[in-house]
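Task: sequence design from structure.
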């Protein structure tokens, strides 16, 4: 049997990781439609429901750090397997949770486990993807994750009908994916980067530029999720229309991501980064201007589903190239990529909401647009490798 497992190709491994990331994204989004169900069932306050909603991303930050640590010692495939096992163990009892506190604890563990899956899986993809097609392959993997969030909404609707059956089935599926992942070979150590320390990586200005770019992109999504649904609603958009706006933005992003990856592979990262930052900054600055729901919805789709992809793919390439240049383990790079994303999302939404409440929506959006446009300067000054 081991010889059959060993014959699996690198292309199949990339396909596996696409599936795992889509699965993780489904689990990230699955709880949102059932929050009202839990609030009613347990008589939970808004604060308690907010803690439940935030428990998963809160777990992903330490999970990403833990995953990077495991990957440098045990390998990226084993890190992914550990994450899947822990996730499956935490999702199986989720439908039987007897209180919001129990559910929040389980969601935190699920997020921690999926941080390991992302740290191991991204490093695995970078290690086995052909150098000349790396950005395109990474784009296809990220696109799968985006599509997964759409599936999570649909699965969450089913879970609202019968939470026990849905989450048990998801746990069984997670165990099945774990067994399948065990059947793949660990990538050679030589493909997983060098032995430079984590300190050497974070002291590299090129890498930290990529880190900031990821924080900026994630913060943009966090800001948009906090402000734009309410703004659309104030203009009279229904819940369905708000949902459709964000679904279309996600679809556009998913379709563009592999294409932008191909551009990065063939043309380098500078042009996608500059175009992405400039166009995103202008679109974000324009979000306070539409006087009605329809133009705001169109602008939202363009801002979240368009040039922001160029910034995200450029950021990932900057971090990957810098890790290789420094000679650090790829797992360190993916660990910090996930950490940057978690920081951006965790800070973006509450900061935007707080500033908006004290002033108006215009202030946080203009500040975010200014930060985006000003980031063009270090992109021009610190020219990463692979241009």
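Answer:
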């Amino acid at each position: 049997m081991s010889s059959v497992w060993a014959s699996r190709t690198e292309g199949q491994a990339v396909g596996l990781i696409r599936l795992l990331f889509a699965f993780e994204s489904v689990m990230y989004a699955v709880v949102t439609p059932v929050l009202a169900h839990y609030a009613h069932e347990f008589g939970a306050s808004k604060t308690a429901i907010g803690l439940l909603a935030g428990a998963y991303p809160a777990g992903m930050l330490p999970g990403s750090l833990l995953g990077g640590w495991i990957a440098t010692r045990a390998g990226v495939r084993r890190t992914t397997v550990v994450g899947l096992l822990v996730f499956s163990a935490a999702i199986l009892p989720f439908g039987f949770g007897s209180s919001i506190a129990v559910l929040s604890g389980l969601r935190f563990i699920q997020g921690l486990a999926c941080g390991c899956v992302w740290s191991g899986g991204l490093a695995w993809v970078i290690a086995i993807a052909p150098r000349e097609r790396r950005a395109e392959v990474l784009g296809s993997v990220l696109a799968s994750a985006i599509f997964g969030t759409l599936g999570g909404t649909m699965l969450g609707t089913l879970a609202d009908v019968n939470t026990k059956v849905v989450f048990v089935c998801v746990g069984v599926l997670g165990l099945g994916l774990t067994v399948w992942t065990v059947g793949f070979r660990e990538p050679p150590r030589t493909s997983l980067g060098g032995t430079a320390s984590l300190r050497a990586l974070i002291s590299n200005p090129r890498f930290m530029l990529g880190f900031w770019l990821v924080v900026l992109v994630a913060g943009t999504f966090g800001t948009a999720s906090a402000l734009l649904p309410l703004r659309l609603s104030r203009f009279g958009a229904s819940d369905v229309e708000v949902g459709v706006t964000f679904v279309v933005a996600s679809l556009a992003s998913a379709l563009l991501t592999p294409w932008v990856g191909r551009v990065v592979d063939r043309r380098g990262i500078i042009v996608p980064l500059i175009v992405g930052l400039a166009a995103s900054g202008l679109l974000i600055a324009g979000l306070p201007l539409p006087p009605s729901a329809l133009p705001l919805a169109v602008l939202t789709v363009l801002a979240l589903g368009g040039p922001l992809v160029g910034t995200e793919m450029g950021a990932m390439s900057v971090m990957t190239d810098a890790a290789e240049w420094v000679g650090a383990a790829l797992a360190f790079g993916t660990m910090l990529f996930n950490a940057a994303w978690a920081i951006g999302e965790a800070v973006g939404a509450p900061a935007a909401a707080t500033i908006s409440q004290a002033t108006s929506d215009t202030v946080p959006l203009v500040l975010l647009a200014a930060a985006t446009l000003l980031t063009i300067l270090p992109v021009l000054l610190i020219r990463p490798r692979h241009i």
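Residues 1-7 have pLDDT under 50 and may be disordered.
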